[in-house]
């Protein structure tokens, strides 16, 4: 019993970390994906309000024509109740004067009534007092905010709206988010979905291929170099990974811009200056795959290099005695023993490429013409960042949720396909 | 030593005698979007207003200390709006924001902002002097949410020397704004002339027509030029006019095909863009009234003899020459402390004082928000402000304050981008825009 507790105790930091950094975000994504959360609904809940803009379509909700009319015509009216409240909270004299001149009169907007209160012989002098006084005569709920449904329903009753319509109106007036499955329907309907998916598949496959092949190339080629040179080369190729992404991409921008390095050099040969990153979609893809590829390849290089070093050198010596050339060593000794690291890099990089978009964001931001917009970037643009500030958290989460499922499915596939269990049980390298 | 003790004792006694006057400390944070150095008065006007309000309070025997903290170092509108929205959710929103009037609809719906009309008297000075159409733009659904901070418009520009080389006389060029306004000189003429300028080698390929390099309200102007309508006046619903949208996209596709505009133009660096148009590298382009000052900083100090400006020409018979004014507004954000909201609203009202607003208008080459500004020497003496007002503002319209307009304009620009860059034909792009809008905007959309 105690030993079990001890085990859990040791595991708890990992459990807490996994819950906070993995489980919670996933749960929240699932939750968000089933809501219509956006900038205009807010995240923290809403309140109840009908404004004049909504009045235009309130008739379409199916409430009775009488209720519609009551909502539309109500405004501010000088009534005895209002006057009594005014006399109580402000000044008897003001109330008397108002009663004398304006009893029974209606005002469409609060501003009209404020003007009256301002021009009385004995005016209410302070702006905020005037507004508070005017509010005492409100017989409208249009434009007013109510924090809770009860308050809203009470106000509806006060306005004399048929209780049968209260439910519909409460739903209509709610400004917060609601549960819905529309996001997924929308994803199926939107023509851009297929394009983003194709872009993502293209991006992942190309970058992954480049990563692995180039990483292997670097590892093997530096393996055959003398130690000092090998380390220098590895350090240089490791730069893309340790540079801050912003700086790294800025250098690429400088490299490819209209007045950047390539344009300048090609300019000597009479090529007109052009943007070597953004001119066409194929160029944008090439640059993006290279940018991400070099970052991934450097990690692959380190991993593969250490894996090659773990191969018993006696095997290589033996092969040399047998007359094998370099290529045969690579083909028959090194590569077969690299299955596990290659597999690891493939699955790790697939999953990280699927969800990473920062280098694309910094380089092309999905352009030109959304041709390099990948799924994760689309999720980011939809949910968190676009020119109009129209942030659709719900739809963005639905995008992200799709990625979560694809990620899990791919993980399972990799586990089965590469037979992870066997590899874990008996590392080939140690044979 | 003894002296000091005596003095402090005296000070203490006076403080006690004076009674319990509470010094009230208020912190006001102002975030201004889309602002660079020349827009510094968006924040500084609030600082000056704070000084005035403190003095007013002092006269009434209250001690009010207002600390104003401004921020305008945002990389773009996207980052600014993201910061505001997420800040509002987290309860760390600034007290005052300077932002697009288009944010009023969604932000008021979400409860991020409070209505200024709840705190200030709209019938008193200086708010009663603000142009009523601008006040209208700063309101939504019957409520005055904000106060216009500046006004502007987005003209079409011609490089005079290029026009001369194309065969226009000085008189022709001077008459251009009128010809554009009457619908005689249209976007078709722009296309022809831009193509000719490239073919004749006056400008380089891709520099015939050199549009804004990023998303912005400017592109809605071309939709209007081809007869589009943003909002249906009767129902208040957004309108997608497919024929106009297709022609609008087609115009940009034709420009690319003619070599007058670069296919990958969107995403061009803004600094590069300003420098090129200010120095005559492009034949035609479009921009904003505030570009006037920027061109001077880019080395063109002779605007009037090098550049002509007009409305955005009409595109076809259904369309009209037009320009969009996209005023920024001061908004008060929802705060835990109602007193902060009240002070913030009062500061905004004071900052609208014609003299204060003129500082911003002239420094940043924007247009006035209040009528009295035309009587302020600083404003009246500025040729650009008065001529731009005359040529442009009378025909200026604005984009609708509508909950879904953000989605509408985003979809419209995405469609333009994919047609322009050759990913889709204009017809395909419009079909996708329609699908996108139907799905996201739904009942609030009318498709024609």
Automatic annotation (TrEMBL), chain A:
One Pfam family of this chain: BPD_transp_1
Annotated Gene Ontology cellular component terms = plasma membrane
Transport as a keyword of this entry, yes or no, is yes
Subcellular localization: Cell membrane
**What are the ABC transmembrane type-1 domain coordinates in residue numbering?**
197-414
Report if keyword Metal-binding is assigned: no
Q: Per UniProt, what is the membrane topology? A: Multi-pass membrane protein
Annotated GO biological process: transmembrane transport
- Swiss-Prot/TrEMBL keywords: Cell membrane, Membrane, Transmembrane, Transmembrane helix, Transport
What's the family?
A: Belongs to the binding-protein-dependent transport system permease family.
Protein name stated in the entry? Carbohydrate ABC transporter membrane protein 1 (CUT1 family)
What is the organism of origin for this protein?
Yoonia sediminilitoris
UniProtKB/TrEMBL annotation, chain B:
Query: Highest taxon of the source?
Result: Bacteria
| Gene Ontology CC | periplasmic space
Q: Which InterPro entries match?
A: Bact_solute-bd_prot1, SBP
**Which Pfam families has this protein been placed in?**
SBP_bac_1
What SUPFAM superfamilies does its record include? Periplasmic binding protein-like II
* Gene3D superfamilies hit by this protein: Periplasmic binding protein-like II
Name its cellular compartments. Periplasm
Query: What protein is this chain from?
Result: Carbohydrate ABC transporter substrate-binding protein (CUT1 family)
Which species expresses this protein natively? Yoonia sediminilitoris
Q: Tell me the lineage of the source organism.
A: Bacteria, Pseudomonadati, Pseudomonadota, Alphaproteobacteria, Rhodobacterales
């Amino acid at each position: 019993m105690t030993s079990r507790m001890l085990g859990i105790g040791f595991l708890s930091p990992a459990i807490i970390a996994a819950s906070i950094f993995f489980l919670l975000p996933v749960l929240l994504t699932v939750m968000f994906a089933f809501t219509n959360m956006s900038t205009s609904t807010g995240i923290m809940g809403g309140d109840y309000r009908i404004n004049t803009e909504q009045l235009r379509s309130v008739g379409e909700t199916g409430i009775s024509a009488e209720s519609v009319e009551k909502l539309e015509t109500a405004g501010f009216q000088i009534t005895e109740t209002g006057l009594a409240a005014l006399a109580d909270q402000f000044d008897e004299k003001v109330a008397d004067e108002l009663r004398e001149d304006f009893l029974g009169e209606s005002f469409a907007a609060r501003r009209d009534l404020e003007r009256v209160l301002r021009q009385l012989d004995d005016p209410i002098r302070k702006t905020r007092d005037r507004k508070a006084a005017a509010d005492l005569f409100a017989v409208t709920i249009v434009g007013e905010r109510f924090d809770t449904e009860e308050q809203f329903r009470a106000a509806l009753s006060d306005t004399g709206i048929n209780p049968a319509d209260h439910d519909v109106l409460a739903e209509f007036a709610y400004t917060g988010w609601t549960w819905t499955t529309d996001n997924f329907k929308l994803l199926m309907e939107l023509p851009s979905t297929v394009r983003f998916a194709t872009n993502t598949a293209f991006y992942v496959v190309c970058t992954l291929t480049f990563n692995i092949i180039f990483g292997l190339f670097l590892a093997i080629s530096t393996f055959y170099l003398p130690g000092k040179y090998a380390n220098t080369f590895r350090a240089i190729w490791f730069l893309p990974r340790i540079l801050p992404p912003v700086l790294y991409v800025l250098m690429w921008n400088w490299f490819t811009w209209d007045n950047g390095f390539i344009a300048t050099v090609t300019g000597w040969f009479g090529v007109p200056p052009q943007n070597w990153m953004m001119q066409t979609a194929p160029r944008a893809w090439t640059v993006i795959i290279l940018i991400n590829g070099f970052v991934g390849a450097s990690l692959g290089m380190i991993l593969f290099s250490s894996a090659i070093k773990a191969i018993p050198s006696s095997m290589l010596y033996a092969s040399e005695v047998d007359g094998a050339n370099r290529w045969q060593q690579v083909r028959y000794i090194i590569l077969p023993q690299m299955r596990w690291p290659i597999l690891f890099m493939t699955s790790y990089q697939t999953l990280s490429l699927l969800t990473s978009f920062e280098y694309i964001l910094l380089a092309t931001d999905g352009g030109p013409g959304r041709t390099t917009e990948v799924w994760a970037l689309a999720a980011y643009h939809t949910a968190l960042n676009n020119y109009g500030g129209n942030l659709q958290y719900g739809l963005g989460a639905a995008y992200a949720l799709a990625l979560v499922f694809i990620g899990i499915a791919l993980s399972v596939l990799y586990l089965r396909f590469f037979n992870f269990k066997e590899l874990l049980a008996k590392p080939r390298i140690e044979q | 030593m003894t002296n000091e003790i005596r003095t402090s004792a005296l000070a203490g006694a006076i403080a006690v005698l004076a009674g319990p006057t509470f010094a009230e400390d208020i912190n006001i944070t102002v975030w201004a979007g889309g602002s660079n150095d020349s827009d510094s008065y968006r924040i500084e006007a609030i600082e000056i207003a704070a000084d005035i309000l403190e003095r007013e309070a002092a006269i009434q025997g209250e001690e009010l200390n207002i600390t104003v903290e401004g921020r305008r170092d945002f990389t773009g509108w996207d980052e600014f709006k993201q910061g505001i929205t997420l800040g509002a959710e987290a309860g760390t929103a600034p007290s005052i924001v300077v932002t697009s009037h288009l944010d009023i609809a969604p932000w008021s719906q979400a409860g991020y902002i409070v209505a200024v009309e709840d705190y200030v008297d709209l019938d008193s000075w200086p708010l009663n002097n603000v142009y009523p159409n601008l006040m209208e733009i700063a309101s939504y659904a019957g409520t005055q949410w904000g106060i216009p901070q500046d006004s502007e418009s987005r003209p079409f520009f011609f490089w005079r020397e290029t026009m001369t080389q194309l065969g226009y006389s000085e008189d022709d060029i001077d008459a251009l704004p009128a010809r554009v306004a009457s619908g005689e000189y249209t976007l078709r003429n722009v296309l022809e002339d831009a193509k000719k300028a490239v073919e004749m080698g006056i400008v380089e390929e891709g520099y015939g027509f050199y549009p804004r390099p990023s998303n912005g309200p400017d592109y809605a102007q071309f939709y209007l030029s081809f007869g589009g309508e943003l909002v249906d006046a009767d129902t208040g619903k957004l309108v997608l006019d497919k024929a106009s949208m297709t022609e609008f996209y087609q115009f940009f596709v034709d420009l690319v095909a003619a070599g007058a505009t670069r296919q990958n133009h969107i995403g061009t660096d803004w600094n590069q863009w300003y420098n090129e148009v200010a120095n005559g590298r492009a034949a035609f382009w479009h921009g904003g009234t505030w570009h006037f000052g920027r061109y001077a900083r880019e080395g063109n100090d002779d605007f009037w003899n090098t550049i002509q400006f007009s409305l955005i020409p009409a595109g076809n018979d259904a369309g009209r020459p037009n320009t969009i004014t996209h005023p920024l507004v001061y908004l008060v954000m929802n705060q835990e402390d109602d007193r902060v909201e009240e002070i913030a609203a009062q500061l905004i009202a004071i900052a609208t004082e014609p003299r204060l607003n003129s500082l911003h208008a002239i420094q940043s080459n924007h247009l006035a928000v209040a009528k009295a500004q035309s009587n302020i020497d600083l404003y009246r003496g500025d040729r650009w402000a008065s001529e731009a007002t005359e040529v442009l503002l009378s025909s200026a319209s604005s984009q609708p304050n509508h909950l879904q307009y953000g989605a509408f304009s985003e979809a419209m620009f995405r469609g333009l981008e994919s047609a322009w860059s050759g990913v889709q034909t204009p017809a395909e792009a419009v079909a996708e825009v329609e699908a996108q809008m139907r799905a996201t905007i739904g009942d609030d959309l009318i498709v024609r």
